[in-house]
Amino acid sequence: MLFPTTIAGSLPKPGWLAETHKLWPKWRQEGDELARAKRDATLLWLKLQEDAGIDCLTEGEQSRQHFVHGFVEFVDGIDTANKVAMGIRNNRYEAIVPQVVGQLRLKGRAHATEARLARAHTKRQLRFTLPGPMTIMDTVKDAYYGDRIKTAMAFADLLNEEARALEKDGIDVIQFDEPAFNAYTDEAAGWGIEALHRAIDGLKCKTAVHICYGYGIKANIDWKAGLGAEWRQYEDFFPALAKSRIDQISLEAMHSRVPARLMGLLHGKEVIVGAIDVATNLIETPDEIEAVVAEALKFVPKDKLILGTNCGLAPLDTDIAIAKLEALGKGAGQARARHG
Ligand code: ZN
């Protein structure tokens, strides 16, 4: 089937699970009740994604507070009690971050529960998202390794351990989220991709990297406003990604100032084109989505084109997120009818 649909990863958490409309929501339950609420929210989103016509589903990151820290909390060698302020994404904004204080090790499985739950309750393909090594490195303060690359490689080894286990749990696509690539484009083309290769080592399932311009939060919207008429960050590292062993590249397109021709730099790769804007509550029309597809098809062969979202939908209102998923399903259907 042409133009299969998927999403970048996160979905809003229901009000009975966590605070709503937040990127760092506080849980509303604890202990067993929290575990049950996470389970129920995951099942609900699997059903809603299926009904919207999404082909490759995620567990919506319902079991994690935040896409980076949801992994970091399972890592030994990190002091989460004494957080410090640090400029992140090349000082785009300041965050209060935990510190690396010793050798990094996984405490055990990070995401077995939600991965197995999702696998047991859908027959569709499953994509599982993990933060990329460069992005994790850029979201914690290193006080042990003394070197950015060494720290990122240490995280890459842990990600590989979890990714191999996720593959055994029945996950079809393992995706690493690397928003930091757009902040450090030269490093991305070099050791950034090397770290991804370390994270996917030995995997037989499909692999993906999601590189976006971030959630629709104010710091990102302000940053984008200063990036000029054309956003060409991708140009610096797409040629290197085209030569990499990563199968799928997920990028931003809807309402984006990224020139579509940059997709042409990803020769040979499956391209997940963001056809849903996460920075607006307006619901995309099938015609708008079809227009994004038509533009992408100038640079990507049609059997390599996957439709996705610009980024995660987590901070949005639940009803808006559902409507956007439905729009994606409908838009893909219309595009198939036109180009099939
Ligand atoms: Zn994103």
Please give the structural blueprint:
Layout: H1 31-52, E1 56-57, H2 69-72, E2 75-88, E3 93-106, H3 112-121, E4 125-131, H4 133-137, E5 141-142, H5 148-168, E6 173-177, H6 185-200, E7 206-211, H7 218-225, H8 233-242, E8 248-251, E9 270-274, H9 286-296, E10 305-308, H10 318-339
Parallel strand pairs: 1-4, 3-5, 4-6, 6-7, 7-8, 8-9, 9-10
Antiparallel strand pairs: 2-3
This protein binds zinc ion (ZN).
The site of zinc ion has 7 residues, from loops.
Describe the structure in your own words:
By secondary structure, this protein is α/β, with parallel strands linked by helices. It has one domain: TIM Barrel (Alpha-Beta Barrel), CATH 3.20.20. The chain is built from 10 helices and 10 strands. Helix 1 packs parallel to helix 10 and helix 5 runs parallel beside helix 6. The mean pLDDT is 96. The site of zinc ion has 7 residues, from loops.
Strand order of the largest sheet: 1-4-6-7-8-9-10
Along the chain, the helix and strand elements come as HEHEEHEHEHEHEHHEEHEH
Shape-level CATH architecture: Alpha-Beta Barrel
Helix content: 25-40%
Poorly predicted segments: none
Number of domains as seen in the coordinates: 1
- Structure summary, number of beta strands: 10
Report the span from N to C terminus: 9 Å
Strand content: 15-25%
Listed once per kind, the bound small molecules are: zinc ion
SS field, number of helical segments: 10
Largest sheet: 7 strands, parallel
The coarse overall form would be globular
Looking at CATH, which topology would you report? TIM Barrel
Q: Give me the secondary-structure category.
A: alpha/beta
CATH class categorisation:
Alpha Beta
Mean pLDDT over all positions: 96
Q: Return Rg in Å.
A: 19 Å
